[in-house]
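so i finally got all the pieces together for this one. its three components total, 1071 residues if u count the protein bits. some of the lines might not be protein, just check the labels. i wanna see the whole assembly predicted at once instead of chain by chain like last time, that was a mess tbh
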Amino acid sequence: MLTGHEIRDRIARRETSALEITKRSIDAVAASEPELRAYLTLTPEYALARAAEIDARLARGEDCGPLAGVPVAIKDLFCTQGVRTTSGSKILANFVPPYSATVVAKLESAGAVMIGKTNMDEFAMGSSCENSGFHPTRNPWDLSRVPGGSSGGSASTVGARGVPIAVGTDTGGSIREPASFCNIVGVKPTYGRVSRYGMIAFASSLDQAGPMTADVRDAAIVLEAIAGLDPMDSTSADVPVPHYEDALRDDLRGVKVGIVREFESSISGDAAMSSLYKEAYAALVRLGAELVEVSLPHAKYGLATYYLIAPAECSSNLARYDGARYGVRVSDGGDVYQMFERTRAAGFGPEVKRRIILGTYALCSGYYDAYYVRAQKVRTLMKQDFDTAFSACDVIACPAVSCPPFELGAKSDPVAMYLMDYFTIPMSLAGIAAMSVPAGYVDGLPVGLQIAAPAFEEGRMLGVAHAYEQSTRFAWARAPKVGAA
Amino acid sequence: MTDVPIDIAHVAKLARIALTHDESAAFTAQFAKLFGYIEELQALDVTHVSATAQVIPIMNVMRDDIIRDCLDRAAALANAPDTSGPYFKVPRILE
Amino acid sequence: MKTSPDVATTETAKHDYEPVIGLEVHVELKTKSKMFCSCRNEFGAEPNTAVCPTCLGMPGSLPVINRVAVEYLCKAGFALGCDVAPYSKFDRKNYFYPDMPKNYQISQYDMPLTTGGGVTLSSGKRIRLNRIHLEEDTGKNLHAGGAMAGSDYTLIDYNRAGVPLMEIVSEPDISSSDEAEDYLAELKAVLSYIGVSDVKMHEGSLRCDANVSIRPRGANELGTKTEVKNMNSFRSVGRAIKHEIARQAERLAAGDRIVQETRGWDEVKGTTYSMRSKEEAHDYRYFPEPDLVPLALDADVLARWRSELPELPDARRKRFAQQYGLSEYDAQVLTAERSDADFYEATAAACDDPKQAANWLMGDVRRALQSAGFTALAQSPMTAAQLGELIRLVKSGAITGKAGKEVCDILVAKGGDPNAIVAERGLGAVTDSTEIAAMVDQAITANQKSVDAYKGGKANAFDFIVGQVMKVSRGKANVEIVRALIKERLG
């Protein structure tokens, strides 16, 4: 499978058609799906009809958008009108939304062709895709390993090149970590850059949608297509959306790249990971960048802060799943509250229950100030850390993950799993832009470099990532096990 | 390991989730580990720090008082586990 | 079933205890669309037809604040003398209830839109307000088979879910059921004046919960309070409070303690009953609503909203008494509804006689409205110009008072030009002396006995003869001319 921009260019030159590309994508997905299980719902009939429509419109000379005829996969927490949307949860196993998310509508008007809805950790809570209420997804680089999470299905299918482009969501690392695990590009935009309307909420003050793509150029194209003010989302920002492709650069002369002192010391214990990142920074220097040391003194509190704020918001956001208006109901003749309690006991998996209990507790009167409010104050400190750091550098380069993809079942302890987000959580709490770009391999398994930029400086971030990608060429490598369509 | 102050049964009642005994026991142990991290926050002096509820400095987002199309009733009820005529139907409410 | 405390106990109690009452009043705002979505805000629509993903709490939906709801609340705040907060935000109030689609209500916790303010009762006593905040209404549960506990299932209509609601919380300054009713009437008058709500308690656009406690007279400490709900009229608010005061007094007199709880008002039995105990109550787990951003309203916008307020009932009442020389009572009645007061002022201007305008509106017009089956002046097609013209016709003697009443009935029922009605029906007064003289002579001739009686000193015989003339004229003769001519004839 080609990248999105290659498809765009070939369709423009009439070398191929949307229908031909779509068929190829459907076939590729069908071939890899028995092993990967990256999807919860496939929509081939819809995709073929839509591709034919786009070809017809192109034949009439219409402009069908920057992604005309490009197959995309949508994380199953974006509502898609008329297509089942589960957020990876059994409690929504039968939910068919009467409306589409803004991101989905924008991708459609950009000409993209939805191939299916991808698997994920239930309600985006997890870092391995093992918390899916339906089945785990596997990593195309090693089928015994996880693709990361929560946007694991999206990462896996792009990693296997079933589609060149997917969208995921990132609350504490849910785009960047799976992107790192599957050797793809994953962008968590600035909070407010992309509308959350129609995105099934996990933690509202942190959730953000973003591209998961084969390369940086595709990420730039997709981000431009989905970003922007949405009157349906009060927290979306009224900041102009640049033409991100113009920001892509091939060298880094004059760019100051911040290296985070605290992160380097925490990864230094792992020789393989540490040397991989040292080599990544060296590559930036070879491109002309200047490295400066910066400090994020409160980053070590990220996990604690995140695991108060996100569960608190989730406990409230997930209260609506009660079996009354939609979704699955479990009732055995008791009153309505018994129905609520049984429905939620049966419909939610253990991780979701764990976070709801934790979050409910953090908001209880008597504990609220000690936990939730304190966490919000630490969040302020973390934001200030980044402000200070960015006064000395243009972007930050740091690890996206602390390890390459692990085997299914390897992290049965929830806190061990939470630690997977150690390097990604601080950026989420600060609401700034961050992404992961392929940075090489440890024991043949992909590892990503994280690049972070100040709020709404996605162009700067993509520019640095592009130069790095072009010179290192890690993104061109194909997953050895499956795909290669 | 840190002592977990959570009364899990009480919190589960507030959250309306019927937890099994095993789940409650497992959560207690897992929270003990997590609270080891969470309690670290208590060491920070945040007396003069303001709380961040929203990371972006946006204010006064309001819409005009304009009516747009509502859902058809059929669409509104389409996902309901149970209905009766034009209504959503749930088991009885006991106060 | 509990029995009502007998009168003797109540009377004793009144002497020993002082009631302390605070009211929480929920008022639905009359916006076009709902609080956080663009569904229509309509009372009485077909079930589940005014709903969308947002007000059904569907996955992925988000709220957006209705600007006019904020405007209406601020206007209510200005009208009630409140301080509008320079910075305000929304919070989530978390609890499960089947009529609440998200199982949390978007409300305001620690930064309400307004604080302070107050309502002045007719006695002059000021009831302070604690706050007014903005929130969303819930849907409606219908309990199949009548009684809640007896039915197998509950039906839900979410049309009302998301309707903008302002909660007006008073300080516990109210000391009696009468004051509570007075407070509600004043509040209703102000809110209907500024046009932000229908304030109809029977349609649920105004709802009231009462926090009631009693304490030994003269004590500083507050007693344990109960929250009384489910009253459906101002009158039942008064009755419920009266009952609750008596019930608490009886408990304390018997050496019991008051349990802090929510109590429902049973309109038929005239008693309150325990609904749920606060001890096992909710922990609402308020936290800032992350789907919305804070409000810091621009001073210019607030100034504009304030300047758009009409003259308020209290000020207008005082002005009416002073400017038009009306009695306190008349001024009160004429200003209770803004549209009535506007009508009155227009009528007074049209007939150039404020006193007469008040008399007509309080008397004949009111009677005519009743017989036409109208419950409010606004329902009648009659205009103030038409009524003013009618009053002019009567004042000038162009028609008699009796004919005026007839024209008034027609105007109230159908409206129209009073002059045309008079002409059409031949109701014009007879003022031609020659014509009247003929009728007087005829009456004197036909009633010689009365003439004799009058001459013999029986004064009331004179009125009889006047009456006979009026009868002949079918009420149209100018009565002053009739009297003068009879006097002239009989010496």
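The longest strand of chain B covers residues 87-91.
Residues 1-64 of chain B form one domain.
anyway lmk what u think
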